[in-house]
Amino acid sequence: MSVPVADPVPLLLVGLHGHGRSQLRSLLPLAASGLVRLVGVCDRVPPAPDDDLEGHGPVPFFEDLSTALERTRARITVLVTPIHTHLPLALLALEHGSHLLLEKPTTATLAEFDRLVDAVEASDLACQVGFQSLGSAAVDAVRSLIAEGAVGRVRGIGGWGAWKRTSAYYARAPWAGRRRLDGRDVVDGALTNPFAHATATALAVAGGGDRPPLGIEVELHRAHPIESDDTSALRLRTADGTVVTLAVTLCAPESVPPMLVVHGERGRIELEYTLDRVALHRPGRAPHVTTHLRRNLVADLVDHVRHGAPLSVPPAATRGFMHVLEAVRTAPDPLSIGPEHQEVREEDGVVHRSVHGIADLVVRSAESLSLFSELGVPWARPNVEVHR
């Protein structure tokens, strides 16, 4: 007896340019397998010849989301749009009866997050948040190692990220590098957007992704002439008392894969969350390295819609992260890192700023669970503490 094959799920992509291109490419294998069917793309800017739509066949283009939802009757809407548009566009999709995949960060404020959670619950529809690293089996692997006592009692979790971003990165969109735009919160800083996965993944490893931290300390700095932070440190304590410290920069000489480190009394676990790679280090033994599969979050959402399978990243799983974003949002504006602490290079009108010694500094912070101001950095200032 043959088993009937389900029809592809109609899917609408909102936000075609920038990261939207990556999302479009990730949909190609899902469309080829018959899991989804791209029924439309929506953006203020029409598709360009190199926007990879050929693999999806003729795809209608819309400039207005409400019109796109009415005409396509998309069952799933993928929102890859600026941070400050997440809530209004998500509410519109829910009103039209469409399930959601919402790009991270979830919303621009904690109050907006609460509104989103309420709207999703009232709609009886599903919402998946695009923290891709939380779809990785590497997170479960690290949690299993901790639970079985592979490194003994956990002293804390440190994380560091060092990427190279130029002036072109901040010139790509009006909201890039902004804390606010046209009276709306944006919060496009290193901690809350490029390295949002570091925070969310560290909280997931610590078991605190769905709960507010007990306390949050942030140190926000900037080398670029922007509003938001590009070089920052964060320390929090989860609800069960685990200390998490993260140090990140977009002003590194070169980009390297970010790292989370679980510091145990009898060893350490390293998680390269962009590579889904876990390394267990224990004294007297060779490191044990494993690489894990990552679940496509759209495929995961389809599985939930069709079969009721649990979502990998429902909004509730990002509540801890949203408290971090709120701490960054309400903190004083980032402090400028003086030119004497930078190397500035310009080529073809593009400026790259590298903070002296920053690649080593973020690693020192993660290894010692210290903030910049506690490591004798001349440009760092004491932390801002935010209580729950």
Automatic annotation (TrEMBL):
InterPro entries attached to this UniProt entry: Gfo/Idh/MocA-like_OxRdtase_N, Gfo/Idh/MocA_oxidrdct_glycsds, GFO_IDH_MocA-like_dom, NAD(P)-bd_dom_sf
Boundaries of every Gfo/Idh/MocA-like oxidoreductase N-terminal domain copy: 14-131
Keyword Oxidoreductase: yes
Any Pfam family matching the protein: GFO_IDH_MocA_C3
UniProt keyword list: Oxidoreductase
Ranges where the GFO/IDH/MocA-like oxidoreductase domain occurs: 141-270
Oxidoreductase as UniProt keyword: yes
The name this protein goes by in its record: Gfo/Idh/MocA family oxidoreductase
Organism the protein comes from: Nocardiopsis lambiniae
